[in-house]
Write a structure and sequence with these properties.
The chain is mostly helical. The chain has helices spanning 2-11, 29-33, 50-78. The chain is built from three helices and no strands.
């Protein structure tokens, strides 16, 4: 049932997904990603430094956990 609803949604001509013939620009994937990848994540040969991405993700997770612990400690002190 879910699949048939999804098919109808995309075939229904949703204004956000429908495009006229002249709206699609002639661009390659490389052109669209050129400005979206921060310099710190680019390797020297036009790719992405996945190790740096993983290190930053790990650091972000640690910071979130530390912030949650601080918030919980703060809430427990109020009681």
């Amino acid at each position: 049932m879910m699949i048939s609803e999804e098919v109808r949604y995309f075939q229904g001509g949703d204004p956000f997904t429908r495009r006229e013939d002249g709206e699609v620009a002639d661009r390659s994937v490389d052109d669209s990603l050129e400005g979206t990848i921060p310099l710190r994540y680019r390797d020297g040969v036009g790719g992405i430094d996945l190790e740096q991405v993983r290190r930053d993700q790990l650091q972000a997770r640690r910071e979130v956990v530390r912030a949650m612990i601080r918030r919980l400690e703060k809430l427990l002190r109020r009681r």
